[in-house]
Amino acid sequence: MTIVMRDYPPMAQDFMNREHEDFANLLNAAEQALLMGEAALPHLNLLYDHCVKHFAHEEEEMQRYHFPPYPVHKAEHERVLGMFRDQLANFEATGDVSPVLEFLLETVPDWFGQHLRSMDRVTSQFLFQQKGDAA
């Protein structure tokens, strides 16, 4: 399932919108590589690395502005990174495309939409109230 960012509500923080757009592009590229039988591991690693950096950026902002539900949001990031690591490890060990493709086509887009509409929306609004729409 290709992610198109215009299908999702924008966040009140520009940095989140930019990083979410990058995520969507990397996810779509990884999906295409898998579907076309291309070398997908570099795409998957780029996607994972982006998630690590993006989550760290969000968490840094949440800590800087003392976002009360920070521990819950961070725990969700950790859970998702764990799922990514498991998928990468399985794909590297077996070369089986099916589980990682299902993960990218179904699990990740479902999670992404829910996460944007709930945790990220609340976080971005809180940050906006604290600091404005800063990058």
From TrEMBL:
**What keywords are assigned to this protein?**
Iron, Metal-binding, Oxygen transport, Transport
Pfam families given in the database record? Hemerythrin
- Name its species: Thalassolituus marinus
The family line of this record is: Belongs to the hemerythrin family.
Key word Phosphoprotein present:
no
Question: Where is the signal peptide, in residue numbers?
Answer: none
Domain Hemerythrin-like: residue ranges:
13-122
Q: Which domain of life is it from?
A: Bacteria
Mind telling me what this protein is named?
Answer: Hemerythrin family protein
Under the heading CDD domains, the entry gives: Hemerythrin
